[in-house]
User: What shape does this take?
Amino acid sequence: MKIVKSQRQSTIFSITRLIIISIFCIAVSAHAAGEKKKNVPVVTAVTVTNESAIIVDIIGVNFTAGKDAPIVTLGGQVMTIDVGTLIDTFVSASLLAAILPGDYFLTVTHSKGVGQYDLTVGAVGPQGLKGETGAPGMDGASGMDGAPGMDGAPGMDGAPGMDGAPGATGAMGPLGYTGQDGADGDDGADGADGANGADGADGAVGQSCTVAACPPEGVTTLSCGATQVEIPCVPHFALRDEGPAGGIVFHITPDGLHGLEAAPEEQGFAPWGCFGAYTGATGVEIDDGATNTTTIIDNGCQRAGDAATIAAAYMGPTGDTPGWFLPSKNELNKMYEELHLFGFGGFANVKYWSSSEINKFGLVWFQGFSNGGQFVSLKDFVTKRVRAVRAF
Assistant: This one.
């Protein structure tokens, strides 16, 4: 709110830059005609202390009449008196409602009369710059102590103290009953040997006994003079011995207890079989022949005239020993080296089948016994010799 002085006043207001407060100083002029009356309110100056809320400090005389507060109006609107500021020469008043810019009368009225001041209310100017922060106020008094907190949880037990010194030995109690006898103690050391006794009479001359070599069937003969007794034995084999099933041994373990034997006779000519089918019987080492033969037959190659089926059906020279199979690539070569080259087994200088399949393209291994060469062949459309073998 901006207040402008009337034509009868000569003093102009100044506006501070920080709080944009207009201070107006005016001279008093009697508005009403006639003589001044004693104790009539006189307004000498008006200071704006809050433009936005329209709060003014009014300076003059005769503002009180006993205990009655004056009535202050601006443009016909009654202003609220701050009773705490009211003295005979000063009062602070505020306007409750907004007022438009224009020329107004500010009046102070009490029972003895009316003091009047011409005011011009201008438009509110722009907000001034923020003033500097005031110094911090003094610390307030300390508050009362709070109530005592709850007791904390009990602490952990301390470490056990050291053992005290042993007490004095008590008096001896009465003797107890006699206990049972303890166990016997260990035997004492042997005494020294006594002197040798006299030699006894010579016994009868014993008989000389012999044991025959252990045959493949595992039963041999113990001969003592004219007495002969059959006793069990464990046969030990050497290369080119007769095997347990009547074959010819061509491979043995170092202890001579286990090995491989070849059938002493041919099983004829036959195709390998399973043309167009891959069985996965690819083992080539010693002891792979039995697994290869089982794999071939289990994968559907069970034709009666094929090599693996013929070898598996062989029952040995006595016709009652199962367990024969088509040899692997290396087992077949061992037969060539340990039997055929030594003139054992009755092999012909022809080609013999192995049970070792090469791949899924229908090729398998065979060996020529004329020169020992190992080659590959189709499974069908050709025939070769079959010679079964057996493990023991």
